[in-house]
Amino acid sequence: MKGGIQGMKVSQVSLILIGLVCTTVLVLAWTKTSFLTAFIPSQSRVLQLGLDEAGPGESFKGDNFSYQTRTQQVEQFASSGGIELADKREDIDIGKTTNKGENPSSVIKRWGSDDISEGKNKSSQVEIVLKNSSASESSVKREENGNLSATAINKESHPSVPEGTGSKEPSRVKNKSKESEIVSENSLSVGSSVEREQTVNLSATIGKKGCNYAKGKWVVDDNHPLYSGFGCKQWLSAMWACRLTQRKDFEYEKLRWQPQDCKIEEFTGPKFLQRMQDKTLAFVGDSLGRQQFQSLMCMVTGGEERADVLDVGREYGLVKARGAVRPDGWAYRFPITNTTILYYWSASLCDLEPINVSDPATNFAMHLDRPPAFLRRFLHKFDVLVLNTGHHWNRGKLNANRWVMYVGGVPNTNRKTADIAGAKNLTIHSIVKWVDSQLPLFPGLKAFFRSISPRHFFNGDWNTGGTCDNTTPLSGGKAVLKDDSSDPVAAHAVRGTNVKHLDITALSELRDEGHISRYSIKATPGMQDCLHWCLPGIPDAWNEILFAQL
């Protein structure tokens, strides 16, 4: 037999070649998954979305992209690729990296809390994490240089519900580094695309933790005033409606307060009512509190007559007593959203009770350390409480009202407390401490203590010829640059409590042209009012700041 391949028959060579081919086919069949996968792009690559497609430096054109539209696209994607949206859109979390190297998951807050903060965002990421994929965990990341604002979502309502509705509604969000994850529990098909809403809205930074609303400047805004001084006669006292007087200059109505570090959401009546649906807002304080109450009523109604608004003062005992000039307050309800706005007159925020009930000329015990009976009786019905006091704390007012200071249920004998400043300080701290102690009992209650509204009497006081004749807006400046409050008593009282400080003193000090001044309906000469404000006017800004924190 001849050796080597030359000695082999053709049939033998053919059998060997067939064996090699079969072996090769078997090997390829065994390794085909990894072999083919090497040539198929990963799902994360196929699903890469966002600003990378727009190119560097280009902003995402998503201003008009509604949450509803985005949700519909996600649902369409789910139906085609097998995604099941987790927990009916309730598992939308916001992870905020606070410190370098900190795990974002440690600071995740669930949408639906009231205290989601907003801030400036230099590099924001929106990440849709799609878990349980058949190949690998896929993620879609979108980065934007600029400001990212996440629209408030009512997690128990339809996605298209306007922002501001619901009692557990989150604020819009803008943070320096944030990631939002939509976690899905099933696999997805390759080649599908998902769109994620980014609503860039610089008008809203509600509830921004650390935003000093008192620091900023007055700016001209053609959208102001928010109502007509001529038209809001249903809610506005004529003596404060300067459009009804001889005053001719109204430039002061066009100014809006703009905080330095954040932007205030534009106020609208419908938006306020949606946010306050099934809720009650109560102002308790002096005549400046009453001005803020009337201002808000005009802002909510746009200064228009509203026959549908109900007078519900009787529910709170706010009825005119026999011989009284006016009731102790007013309460109105908007049936469309079951929203109630009320005011109760308590100039000192002390509990007042007659010392001798049988004597019509009796003095009144002014309990410096006891909240008004009205608050103790109705606090459980309130969702937002705004307190203020200040201008009745003088000896003349106390004597005229026959108020006698009491502490601990007995007449005060402490000389330091007997001083007006000491008595006022004790009362403010006492009322704030009491309200703070009640907040755990009423988790839905938000309480504010408004700082004192400044007076602008020049060349005398209210009863000694003091005047405020300036009609040029911002003649003394337009900005507040300091961080500290101009009302240190109020600022100190709320420190360390859950009662918020509605600090309006410094920004109002810049607006001496906005007072009633010498103007009146009858044009009769007399003392000038350099304490109260023309409406529309400065109290509108107080309410815009309040609205931003609801």
From TrEMBL:
What is the top-level taxon of the source organism? Answer: Eukaryota
Which keywords does this Swiss-Prot/TrEMBL entry list?
Membrane, Signal-anchor, Transmembrane, Transmembrane helix
One Gene Ontology cellular component term attached to this UniProt record is: membrane
- Give the record's membrane topology: Single-pass membrane protein
What GO MF annotations does this protein's record show? acetyltransferase activity
Q: Name one GO biological process term.
A: plant-type secondary cell wall biogenesis
Q: Where is the Trichome birefringence-like N-terminal domain?
A: 210-263
Q: Which residues form the Trichome birefringence-like C-terminal domain?
A: 266-548
Q: Where does the UniProt annotation locate this protein?
A: Membrane
Entry keyword rRNA-binding: no
User: Which stretches are tagged as biased composition: Basic and acidic residues?
Assistant: 111-121, 169-181
Q: Which InterPro entries match?
A: TBL_C, TBL_N
Q: What is its main location?
A: membrane
Q: Where is the sequence biased in composition, kind Polar residues?
A: 96-106, 122-138
From the UniProt entry, list the residue stretches annotated as the region Disordered: 88-190
Stated family: Belongs to the PC-esterase family. TBL subfamily.
Q: Which PANTHER family match?
A: N-ACETYLNEURAMINATE 9-O-ACETYLTRANSFERASE, PROTEIN TRICHOME BIREFRINGENCE-LIKE 14
Name listed for the protein in its UniProt record: TRICHOME BIREFRINGENCE-LIKE 16
- Recorded source organism is Perilla frutescens var. hirtella
